[in-house]
Specification:
This protein is mainly alpha-helical. The protein contains seven helices and two strands; from the N terminus they run H-H-H-H-E-E-H-H-H. Strands 1-2 form a two-stranded antiparallel sheet. The longest helix is centred in the C-terminal third of the chain and has 36 residues. The protein is elongated, with a radius of gyration of 22 Å. The protein starts with 7 loop residues before the first helix and ends with a helix.
């Protein structure tokens, strides 16, 4: 039959099924991102992006249904009401195109940050994970007493990585602000500064 908005039994069944499926999609995305974070390759980045897209598609197909069907703010069961509040409290999401742009920007920033280097005529230095006996930027910054070497490391990193990150960060900020605005905030900063 037709769902009744105040039907808590139907809402409980829906959220139990949602939680089971949610765990599957989040686990899939987490595994893919862990594989990428521990072995930064284009193939792993693509797999992480694909897992994130699968999660996003699944999520955006289910949340509008819950918003449309259940009058969760009037539920009598406090636990069920709290579950729906946590899930739907900021219930509006970006459209598929903007969501993909946000995920793309975050993936690109992650890749640039993780694989960025600083180099000169004698060496190419990564942020971390130097080969045995090699030097990593974080090692230079933590241990070097040579002001010029530390300045070279910091300026090189800031220039090389910062310049490459800028267009992706601008997209990130634009999409986060869009999300905040569709959820009633002036911008993403206001969302973070909110009380409660």
């Amino acid at each position: 039959g037709e769902c009744v908005p105040s039907d808590e039994a139907a809402a409980r069944a829906w959220i139990e099924e949602f939680n089971v499926d949610y765990q599957f999609y989040v686990h899939d995305a987490s595994d893919a991102y862990f594989a990428y974070e521990t072995n930064i390759t284009d193939a792993n980045l693509a797999a992480a992006g694909a897992a994130s897209a699968r999660f996003g598609a699944w999520y955006s197909a289910h949340i509008p249904h819950a918003i449309r069907v259940f009058d969760w703010k009037n539920f009598e069961d406090p636990l069920l009401k709290r579950q729906f509040s946590k899930l739907l409290g900021n219930s509006n999401s970006l459209n598929a195109e903007d969501s993909a742009a946000l995920n793309n920007a975050m993936n690109n920033m992650n890749k640039i940050y993780a694989s960025g280097t600083v180099g000169d005529a004698d060496r190419c230095v990564y942020l971390e994970g130097a080969e045995e006996g090699g030097v990593a930027l974080e090692g230079i910054m933590a241990n070097s007493l040579d002001y010029n070497e530390r300045l070279w490391s910091w300026l090189g990193w800031r220039t090389n990585v910062g310049d490459a990150l800028r267009p992706h960060f601008e997209t990130y900020v634009e999409m986060k602000n869009k999300w905040a605005q569709v959820n009633g905030f002036e911008d993403y900063g206001q969302y973070w500064r909110r009380k409660g």
